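Sample intake sheet
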Amino acid sequence: MEQNKDLGDLMISQGAIYGEETKPPLSFGDIQKEYAAARTNAVAFDISNRSKIEMTGPDVPAFLNNICTNQVADLPLGGGCEAFLTTAKAKAVAHIRVYHILLADGRHAYWVDGAPGQNRKIEEHLDHYLISEQVSFADRTSDYAQFLVMGAESRAIISRLIQEEIPELGLHQFLIRQLEDAGSCQIRFENDFNIPAYEIVCLKSRSVRVWKALISHGVIPGGTEALDILRVEAGYPEAGKEIEETTFIPELNRAVQAICSTKGCYLGQEPIVMARDRGQVNRILFGLVLEKSIVKHSTLVFRDGNEVGRVTSSVYSPLLKKSIALVYLRRGNHELGTSFEVECEGVKQSAVSCSLPFNDGLN
């Protein structure tokens, strides 16, 4: 993704520490402060590198409904949902959110929001299944900035910025409002991490003004390292870690959020329904509470000397005051509270399985 130099320069002046120039900052020098702001006040993360595909044309609702796992054909204007794009065998292509939007010229459109770096992959997948439908795609990833404002005070702060109280929004619902002098912005309610949060999407040219407005109202700037801790605590899967091309969608255990069990036929439906009816899959995503320290991606998990799983993400949780991990556990090892052993770089430690999210009911 093309770098937003003006926004980057502003963030550097605020203490941003970058790992790669084309990616959001790792931190603003104090990861603990950034994490704490999400739990007590409000923190803003730059997530502008998320993929953004705009779909237009009269056949978009039916076409998209036929190739994703959730019911999107009847999304109301201002509504959204979580879904997956899959292969015919229900292997993961992309973890997405879909929104029904109104363009500036009055046309209805669908906006597909995906993980960073997946814009071309999503477009290619959509184009592969496009036959004669009247559907057009446009990659808007570089045209728009996107910020995640998270924390107990996020609603109050954004209400002040738009000079009206934000109404109660359902998950993935959004509204369009003027944000101080930054112009029109899309404001989405996103509670994926079990913490009140809003995403602000604006034209790239307005990004500096939006960011300045957030910081001037007491929002703490945050980086990807604090965001990843919050993600793992919430048990939220990430592309390249929990979600790979070999991932069978039911293994992610997100049927409630992202799979409609009552819709008509869609790509990947048959294996998903078969897995649901059998009531089991070969492996499933769980949480692990570790005895000692965090472990690396792909660390193996053992039970009674037998390999039974693999770690996908691991962080130290300030919420639990323990090291935790997301892990795929094989069938036969899904009972909560089961003891395991992990070994990373020659160091062995015990671990206990738990349900996800780790932070469920603790906010």
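Comment: The chain has three domains: 5-49+143-233, 51-139, 282-363. Residues 81 and 268 are 18 Å apart (CA to CA).
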